[in-house]
Amino acid sequence: MTHGILAFGAYIPWRRLQRKAIADTHAWFNPALKAQAKGERAFCNWDEDTVTMAVEAARDALAGRDRAAIGALRFASTTFPFLDRLHCGIVAEALGLDPGISAIDVAATQRAATSALIEALAMNTETLVVSAEKRDAKAASPFEMSSGDGAAAVLVGDGEPIARLLGKASRTADFVDHFRSLDNQFDYQWEERWIRDAGYMPIVPPVIKRCLAAGQVSAADVTHFCMPATLPRVTGTIAKAAGIDERAICDPLHANLGDTGAAHPLMLLVSVLEKAKPGEKILLVGFGQGADALLLEVMPGIGRLPRRLGVAGHLARRKEEASYGRYLAFNDLIELERGMRAETDKGTPLSSLWRNRETVTSFTGGKCGKCGTVQFPRTDVCVNPNCNAIGTQVAHAFADQRARIKSYTADRLTYSPDPPACYGMVEFEEGGRVMIDFTDIDADALSVGQPMQMMFRIKDIDPSRGFRRYYWKAAPVAASPKEA
Amino acid sequence: MAKGIKDKVVILGMGCSKFGERWDKEADNLMVEAYTEAIADAGVDTKAIDAAWLSTAIEEQHVGKSATPLAVALRLPFIPVTRVENYCASGTEAFRGAVYAVASGAADVALALGVEKLKDTGYGGLPQRGRGPLNDMVNPNASAPGSFAQLAAAYRAKHKVEPKDLKRAMAHISVKSHDNGARNPKAHLRNKITIETVLNAPTVAEPLGLYDCCGVSDGAACAIVATPEVARGLGKTDMISIKALQVAVSNGLEAQHNSWDGSYFATTRVASKRAYQEAGIDKPRDALSLIEVHDCFSVTELVTMEDLHISPEGGAIKDVLDGFYDADGKLPCQIDGGLKCFGHPIGASGLRMIYEMYLQMLGRAGERQRQQEPVFGLTHNLGGFPQRNVAAISIIGKYGA
After folding, report:
1. What is the CATH number of the domain that holds B350?
2. Quick one: A415 and A298 in the same domain?
3. Which of A484, B185, B219, B336 would give a disulfide with B356, using CB separation of 3.0 to 4.6 Å?
């Protein structure tokens, strides 16, 4: 049994805003944005946030694994939806993790995920580290162009690792290149040249040096250098200063994802692990009020890891979005006339949510112990008309089952933040059915028999109380990643 | 086997308000409008009524809870009054309460009145509202057209029907109902339309367009029922009696068990079969003279033709396009315009259907009167969603027939 990284996964939202659409809208105000008007950035559907993305990245990482072995969960983000509610709690419930796990949200810095990963690698329990970010950017800011939404997850523990830790180093410094406070929705950022010359350059190379020394690896032997930095040329300058080969610098995923903030170090790590070969050395750096550095060695186990969507698969699962208006609306950056049907108050029934958490959050239904019929939701009396046994239902998990559309519609009358509201009846491969919302779907491509998978999403946002409720929705099955 | 309701109860009188956008009327005004007609027709005094049933479905939009709004509106003299709600089938439920009370002998004369005042929401269609904490946490935010539109998807898949062929039959249904509604002075919509109007209308919920959907209306309808003996005592000769009253309610099978394919109403199939048995009808396609069905959407009417065992399974499109259900066809459906054009004040709709049958049986339907003398009329009042609903069937006809 060796300790190390056992699995990885990622999640990137389906919609990719074309940067040209942003630049074209704001050309009258800030013509300089045109220089950034290449490629695309991922952005959340209206029903996604850091919690839903974290769940999907974790599901990608845990594909085919027994989740009962997980003893700890760390969730890193600077864009959590709640100030006082454990986001790990929602994620653990949605994943069906053991309620006895250690669960901590890690926040408030761009190196939240690297710090959580360092801690996880030092722990003696199987730990899931997940990081997600949904970026809040002011309209017409360079940040709006460069940022992206997404999540990545890494499972750490004993077993057959795909990578092991050779060395680590950290430094903490209250270097404030940007900040966001309770009073501000958006980042306030200082001059780029100062950040590079007074921040990255003095802080990062010494941390890398200590990390490499701890791992007894020379800078020239680093195969993959993963350090997110949205400022131009910073990564290259750091690599040069540290003695790392320029060719080791990994793709920052700027062209078709954007910088996913605190989640980006893990995002880059996952994208590198997808292609890495045994023996290669990965140097992962997170920068934010200091820096974390981790030196990892890729292990032979990487060849035996079951296929997953990861970064590459999720990048391939994409929908080009040319409407900057949709991006503004989904991010609540514009006040739309949503109509009177949007006024319905569905309340925030906390007691009912707690009582029904297995149904709502874990998407667990029932299976009759007498006749074997599965059903959703679980009820006291079996739905099979030839059985109808009382009190025979045992828990039956539906979340990871494939389904097919039985009936559908695209509804333009009811209120939806993304009309038309697509929903319908889906039937699961192991039996059972549910009338459910669809998401990440083209209304004109709906068909009976279409294969669907379940995804954890926001069901409703309660604007008057600031609460959001999560549930599961059906989305078209993503194509398997192509053979490398 | 229970003996059933056949010929135990007769209709003494009926009334119906004008349906539509009654901006100047409160619900109690509409109740009185329907009641005034019914009580005059019955030829009795309010004091003769032993018990009453009120049906409303979306009471939070107008009268509020309980049966007191009916008792207050009509000044009923402290008699037992009950409010019923069973989705859009509420009207037939009120009727069933009154008929069963008379059949049991507990009442000689009973009243059923349905009312709905839906035009005070500020927007078209049914009100958007909460459905209970757990339902709101898991159910899609489905509109009525979005729920019923799914019948079309499942029907096309099951019977291998081209979308345009189904759309065409659905359009025929709406054109027919507008033709019929144009001849009905109490109807909400009295304009004639063409197939092209239907096919070119904006989409509400794929594949339902604007003209595939009924609207919602303000209105009230009322029935006064009694034993045949009481009716005879009042000098009634052409008596119209209840032949069957059946309700079937979903038990979660359609929504949760994979035996239902989504293309039909499991409840309607069961309720109609029981109703034919209760009425002593073997071949409904031949025996029925008129039908009024719950045409909330054109596709609902289409599949209901099969669920009532009138058109063969998969054969409704042909019957519809052949004009079988047109006003001058073999078995007219919605001769009064139906929900589509007479209107849909929910709590009143089931009673409105029976009202039309009653008028047709007595030859009082004016311009839209069926010339071949009707013997048996069926009403089909449906509430809910295809996967979870209440189907209420009544068969009425000439007493002794």
Report:
1. 3.40.47.10
2. no
3. B336
Q: What span, in angstroms and rounded, lies between the C-alpha atoms of A162 and A273?
A: 8
> What's the mean pLDDT in A73-84?
98
B3 touches chain A (CB under 8 A): no
Chain A interface mutation, best of B143, B166, B214, B256, highest count of A Cβ atoms under 10 Å: B256
Catalytic hit among B88, B214, B222, B341: B88
Q: How many CA atoms lie within 13 A of B168 on its CB side?
A: 11
Domain span at residue B315 reads 143-213+240-398
A471 → closest Cβ in B137, B206, B259 = B137
Cβ atoms of residues A185 and A136 within 8 Å: yes
* Domain-located, residue A23: yes
Among A330, A348, A381, the domain boundary falls at A330
Residue A246: closest CA among A269, A218, A270, A223: A223
**For residue A35, how many other CB atoms are within 10 A of its CB?**
10
Residue of A nearest to B258 (CA): A432
Considering only CA atoms, which of B86, B125, B47 is closest in space to residue B382? B86
The single-letter DSSP state of residue A360 is H
Instruction: Answer whether residue B254 is part of any domain.
Output: yes
Please report, for the domain that includes residue A432, its CATH number. 2.40.50
Is B124 contained in some domain? no
Q: Are residues B24 and B41 in the same domain?
A: yes
Query: What is the span of the domain harbouring residue A431?
Result: 358-363+398-476
One domain, residues B370 and B386: yes
In terms of DSSP bridges, do strands A224-226 and A72-76 run parallel, antiparallel, or are they unpaired? Answer: unpaired
Token pair recorded at residue A483: 């053979």
Task: Tell me the pLDDT tens digit for each residue of A357-393.
Answer: 999 999 999 999 999 999 999 999 999 999 999 999 9
Task: Give the count of domains, chain B.
Answer: 2
Task: Judge whether B280 lies within some domain.
Answer: yes
**Same domain, yes or no, for B107 and B173?**
no
Pairing assessment for the beta strands A281-287 and A224-226 based on DSSP bridges: parallel
Give the N- to C-terminal CA distance of chain B in Å, as an integer.
22
Mean pLDDT of the A192-210 span: 97
Q: Where among B199, B233, B267 does a domain terminate?
A: B233
Q: Give residue B129's pLDDT.
A: 82
The verdict on B138 touching A (C-beta cutoff 8 Å) is yes
Measured CA to CA, the distance from residue A461 to residue A47 in angstroms comes to: 9
Confidence (pTM): 0.96
CATH of the domain at A104: 3.40.47.10
User: B375 and B272 in one domain?
Assistant: yes
The single-letter code of the amino acid at B155 is: Y
pLDDT at A483: 42
Cβ–Cβ contact B125 with A under 8 A: yes
Domain-embedded: residue A51: yes
In this structure, is residue A374 part of a structural domain?
no
Q: Using alpha carbons only, how large is chain A's radius of gyration in Å? A: 23
Taking only the tens place, the pLDDT of each residue in B91-126 is 999 999 999 999 999 999 999 999 999 999 888 888
3-class secondary structure, A258: coil
Residues B21, B27, B31, B32, CA torsion sign: negative
Q: How many domains does chain A have?
A: 2
DSSP state of A147: B
Is-contact B10 B231, C-beta < 8 A?
yes
The vertex-A57 CA angle with A52 and A58, nearest 5°, equals: 95
Pair B319, B199 in one domain: yes
Which amino acid appears at position B361 of this protein? M
Q: How confident is the model at residue A481 (pLDDT cuts 50, 70, 90)?
A: low
- B88 catalytic residue (yes or no): yes
Taking an 8 Å cut-off on Cβ atoms, the answer to whether B136 and A449 are in contact is no
Q: What is the pLDDT of residues B2-30, one digit of tens each?
A: 889 999 999 999 999 999 999 999 999 99
Within 10 A of B110 (CB to CB), how many other CB atoms are there?
A: 28
